[in-house]
Amino acid sequence: MMKINPLAPAVAGALVLSLTLGGTASVAGGHGPVATPTLTGWAALPAGTFVLGSEPSGSKITGTTNGWPVPFADQPVQGFSGIVKNRDGSFDVLSDNGYGNQANSADFLLRIQRLAPSFATGTVDVVGGITLSDPAKLVPWPLTRPDRVLTGADFDVESIQRTADGTYWIGDEFGPYLLHFDRAGRLLAAPVPVAGVVAPETAARTGVPATTISSKGYEGLAATPDGRHLYGLLEGTVNGDTPGRLRFNEFDLRTRTYTGKRYLYQLGDPSLAIGDAIAVDNNRFLVIERDGGQGATAVVKRVYLADKRDRNRDGVLDKTLLVDLMNIANPRHLGGFGDKFTFPFQTIEDIVILDNHKIAVLNDNNFPFSTGRSATAADNNEWITIELPRSLDADPRVLR
Q1: What is residue 3's predicted lDDT score, i.e. its pLDDT?
Q2: CA 292, CA 347: separation in Å to the nearest integer?
Q3: Which end of the chain has fewer CB within 10 Å, C or N?
Q4: Has residue 45 got a pLDDT over 60?
Q5: Quick one: average pLDDT of 309-324?
Q6: What range(s) does the Phytase-like domain occupy (predicted)?
Q7: CA angle 250, 171, 206 (to 5 degrees)
Q8: What structural domains does the chain harbor?
């Protein structure tokens, strides 16, 4: 894997080769009980990080690229939309679909990256990864590439879970679909649609009218610790539903079918969106809720604890604010920031539980477009750990 110095995108000499497999990963430690959510670790992967010896990418990109010439000589290790932890301290992280839409992402290869953060040095090593493909020809419509390697024009992958057998379930937004891959990234079954929800990309292919707008499919995908269910949380409201109310669909992993049960998550405002959803136990979930602002316009970037048992009987998941990502205590001034740390990125799409008092959150940097830290520089992928004032009391199987 290759890292390119983000301050010198055109300088060939600014290359750092990451060769460590395992070993470099470290989970930032806390310092006893905290009164408010507190930053305990900060690391960053430079925006210009590419897969060494891969393929050119970005030939269809238009608009401001913040100093990065296109096309790129290799595939970016770019904006992340889902994360699962490994027992060796590394993490499998899902790269987003490409460059923001179907039309400009046909040369972006869909990939699960393996990353190892080192909070002691504030760096992230890329230590491996797999490219997603469909060699068994299970996708029943034509793909972009004849070799059946999947691209950002085929699917918009936004969420990921790994089940006990080591296979991956991935949520897509173009269907929306659930996609099942083996450990080598090969599709194991035909894409699974969800009844009543049709994205414009599928409508264009099938002629079935769209029931939601583009890029509002499975942004969150949670796997219950008992191994029985997946819960797919849509990013946007389905036509005819209450504005800001999102469907949370239950999928049975044993029968590989939807159960017909559907829960509802209510956004704080219909203009907001979710960034990720993961399970705390069989009933509770962590959900990232965000606005579309970045930098000075970023206001709502929050993590909620949501409970599907609906104890107040109002028809939607109960929500409790867990962390305001725009107001995190930073007494150690990690990352070179002050007493108050903010995470002012347009899209924040990754959350993982490290232990009962600690979570990690990552941004999707939409490389090379997003500019949350500087109005003139492409965002890095930042990786933060946050100590919580109260225990999550998570199912022990989540903490393994």
Answers
A1: 45
A2: 7
A3: C
A4: yes
A5: 97
A6: 75-367
A7: 95
A8: 2-23+42-399 (2.115.10)
